[in-house]
Amino acid sequence: xxxxxxxxxxxxxxxxxxxxxxxxxxxxxxxxxxxxxxxxxxxxxxxxxxxxxxxxxxxxxxxxxxxxxxxxxxxxxxxxxxxxxxxxxxxxxxxxxxxxxxxxxxxxxxxxxxxxxxxxxxxxxxxx
Length: 128
What we know:
The chain is mostly helical and 128 residues long.
């Protein structure tokens, strides 16, 4: 029997109205893996809250807050990449439509040529 492996969700800190990352727990936790580097998978709110008090987690949160501008630069980079990918996809779709039209035209020509060939063969047989 096949089984499906359930992967834990990734914990993402909440950004408050001042633009500062803070820890905030959602009401329902199934299994969460924290991005601070720990290998532990948290299955309860209390375990996750205790994890928030560890030095590793607090240092990670401080680092996130110090590197916010880097995240914004990276976001802009990916937005630019996404837009260029959209343009490439649109261009490729236009090429596909053009090629499909050409294929249909060639199929019609083949059909007309086959019809003409059939007529020519028939007329040759009529001459015999």
